[in-house]
Amino acid sequence: MRLILLLLLLPGFTFAAPLVPPPGFIQPLPHTAKGKCLPLPAPWTGSLVFRSKYEGSDSARATLNPEAEKAFRAQTQAITDFERGISEMVWRYKQSGDVNTRNCILAGFNRWASAGALTSKETNHTGRAMRKWALATLATSWLELELTPQDSPQGARWISQLADRVVTDWDGLPLTKTNNHSYWAAWSVMAAAVATDRRDLFDWSLKEYRIAASQIDENGILPNEQKRGPRAVAYHHYALEPLVMIASFAGANQLDIVQENHGALPRLAQYVLTQDKTHVAWLEPWCSTVKCDSVTLALRDDHRPLKNRRLGGQLTLIYAQ
Prior knowledge:
Elements: H1 2-9, H2 66-75, H3 77-94, H4 99-114, H5 125-144, H6 153-170, H7 180-196, H8 199-215, H9 223-226, H10 232-252, H11 260-275, H12 283-289, H13 294-303, E1 307-308, E2 313-314, H14 315-319
Antiparallel strand pairs: 1-2
Helix pairs in contact: 3-4, 3-5, 4-6, 5-6, 5-7, 6-7, 7-8, 7-10, 10-11, 10-12
């Protein structure tokens, strides 16, 4: 207590405010649906070594391998089903208030957490990708339920541990290998940072965001995504999604990073919009972060409701305030 009082008396001393998500993540919703407890797969405790759907492709990695993709989906089905089940139940709970649904989600978290699921150090690139995608879903679900360590000490430790693993997986890559995967890692860690109120994770995510912003050229193009040949546009879009979410979360914590590198993110957003007007879930967080023009708003509205479980689930319900 004496130390705290002394610190408070120091000139300019302040405690860092708790990290928060954008308000829509925790805003109560009308109870217009029914809850449901969904069956969840057993915890994935094996190695994170999976086949790539681009197995055998050239350096552009633009050619799908149907046999390898089928194997990948079979190998990772338990992880994907866990993500989907948790995400669906979160939104059933938020729109129903059903206590049994919430208890079912907590039981799922606790079972996977106590088993140390997804924490294997035996990984390959595809396995590390699966870990950070799963973390994005789980950390945003944790936030949307407004869970605390008191609700699930195991779950809170697990989210934190997964985030540490993701940082280890993706930190310090050379620029030639820093692409959409790094941005998704940064987004998943940002969500986990807010869920666990860890400034070290928050700062790491910002570091990775700034690396991404530095890669966006004057035309809004990411060179490492442009290398993907016929899939370049799809991967620009895929790179944009997590960067927009990081900007949204940073803004919720009074930090404007949109204009870094002379407005790099708006350049990327504009480039993607000129190329792809079909996959626009990212417009919900984007148009809540910046002032969108009427044409962009109309495009967003035409595609509502917008959803993406790894960006937070029901994005229209989150951002259409």
